[in-house]
Design brief:
With 56 residues, this protein is an all-alpha fold. The protein has two helices and no strands.
Amino acid sequence: MQTNRVILLAVMICLVSAITVFLLNGCKVDFLDIGGTIIGCFLGIFVVVRIQKKQS
């Protein structure tokens, strides 16, 4: 898969995860949960891109 496509897919997953956390909190903004979700997703992007570059 191309790097841009992987990043786009990961960003979509990140947004869905953040929205899900927001809804599970009863539509209350908890910045630690949402921030943790976003940071975790972007760390996942970083790992996937590094693995993909090693395989190329």
